[in-house]
Backbone:
């Protein structure tokens, strides 16, 4: 302490204040970091939840679209053939109709 011209009591007070300020800043930083980690964890969980729901909804929508497309194709095929049958597949098992 021979290098400082300032009285030792004043230096001790300044060093203590500096240390206390550093501690407060470090504690604040730790709390903010902990809060950020918790928030990130929660957001990741939420995102994963919504993402799986989104994929599920997309798959359901895809299936519905396919079904609509399939039924629309059947309807157009039925209209083109002039048949009243809603099914475009030929009826099997009947060879001929005879009215004797």
Residues:
């Amino acid at each position: 302490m021979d290098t400082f011209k300032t009285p030792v009591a004043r230096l001790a007070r300044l060093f203590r204040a500096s240390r206390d300020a550093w501690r407060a800043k470090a504690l604040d930083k730790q709390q903010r970091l902990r809060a950020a980690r918790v928030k990130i964890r929660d957001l990741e969980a939420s995102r994963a939840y919504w993402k799986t729901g989104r994929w599920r909804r997309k798959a359901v929508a895809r299936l519905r679209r396919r079904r609509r497309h399939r039924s629309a194709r059947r309807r157009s095929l039925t209209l083109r053939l002039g048949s009243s049958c809603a099914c475009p597949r030929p009826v099997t098992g009947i060879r001929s109709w005879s009215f004797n």
The chain has one helix and no strands.
